[in-house]
Amino acid sequence: xxxxxxEKLQSAFYKLRNRGALTEDDxxxxxxxxxxxxxxxxxxxxxxxxxxxxxxEKAVGAEILTGLNPAQQVxxxxxxELTDILGGKASGINIAPNPPTVIMMCGLQGAGKTTTCAxxxxxxxxEGKKPLMVAADVYRPAAAEQLKILxxxxxxxxxxxxxxxDAVKVxxxxxxxxxxxxxxxxxxxxxxxxxxxxxxxxxLRNIRAQVSISEVLLVVDAMTxxxxxxVAKSFNEALNVDGxxxxxxxxxxxxxxxxxxxxxxxxxxxxxxxxxxMDGLEKFYPDRMASxxxxxxxxxxxxxxxQEAFDExxxxxxxxxxxxxxxDLNDFLEQLRxxxxxxxxxNLLSMIPGMGQQLKNVEIDxxxxxRIEAIICSMTExxxxxxxxxxxSRRRRIAAGSGTTxxxxxxxxxQFAEMKKMVRKLTNMPDNKxxxxxx
Length: 439
Description:
58% of the residues lie in helices and 9% in strands. The protein has helices spanning 3-19, 24-40, 45-59, 62-65, 70-86, 113-126, 143-154, 167-180, 198-210, 226-239, 256-265, 286-293, 299-309, 312-323, 329-341, 345-350, 355-358, 366-377, 381-385, 392-402, 406-427, 431-434, and strands at 101-107, 131-136, 158-159, 185-190, 215-221, 243-247, 269-273, 281-283. An 8-stranded mixed beta sheet has the order 3-2-4-1-5-6-7-8, with helices on both faces. The longest helix has 22 residues, at 406-427. The protein folds into 3 domains: 3-86, Four Helix Bundle (Hemerythrin (Met), subunit A) (Up-down Bundle); 101-294, 3-Layer(aba) Sandwich (Rossmann fold), CATH 3.40.50.300; 302-434, Orthogonal Bundle (434 Repressor (Amino-terminal Domain)). Helix 15 runs antiparallel to helix 18 and helix 20 (392-402) crosses helix 21 (406-427).
């Protein structure tokens, strides 16, 4: 995400760093580069104009141009202004003082609204909530069935009234079911349209008028660029939405919608879709996203995702295995699967400062990880515990069983042995030395 914009902004910053002391002409040239970068990223023209004006006003001050590191100060100004445009601070869901909290999900067809309902329900359940999803799209064929299938996948109940064509009644009756089942959050999957029309808006207004709605979230497709901004503006004018969910952000290399929506509508982006998986919905943090755009990574999100994937007690046990040299291929396979659950490796590594540019032309093939998994799964339990047993005939059998080559099996075993040596050496190193390692 934001790949093209991040690359161009970093190029503009690189020119500033090479200048040493900055003149006003240097800042003006940098602003021209930044303006072009934002416009090419499909950011709203007025947003770009205001952004560049605000950065330039602060960057040409005497204190900046005569400072010890003026280039870094200009980058800091760009970061601050970008954070402000993206929303300033993270915004959560408005929780009702008396349960249930009712969240109405609206948007156009194709934006991923129904899938986002299931993703949001999963996220809320992780936070200790008990959600109920409601199939309130009474027009689209099989809309209720789609939500039920997703509900079964994530083990979250779905309420619907088969054959009912009154969306208001479905939403109203769902609150009664939520109270009976002690659900504290209700997610309404209301009807979308292929385009904005007054009939759709009237139905949404009726639902909001007759049901105690705590939060209206608009789901828009980041890949549609300025069309997403226009949709958000129209919905907000008609419904006064509380926030935006930006889907398919992982596939949007430009990022124009994310940067423009808050400035154009005044409403914050609350969540972003980062993958097709059911856990591929994240809270939106403007400061972290701004950091990634300017090439400084997103260490906080990386740490949070790592902590979520790796249990602290399991991590301690793993360290003990490494120290005692009992770390085997079963342990390696378990860690590999956990890493895969964290999402695409490119996304993870791009959160580490400085890695984004280095990974520019690097493609990490997820099939490679699957092949490694297949090789290990083709081994016997005894072979996984003691790889020294793997003679030539065993390696040929494993290659045939995993659909790989003997060379791939040999490569994996060599890499595993080298990894064990390196990790054990690092683990046994005194803490004061480990802190000074360059990685």
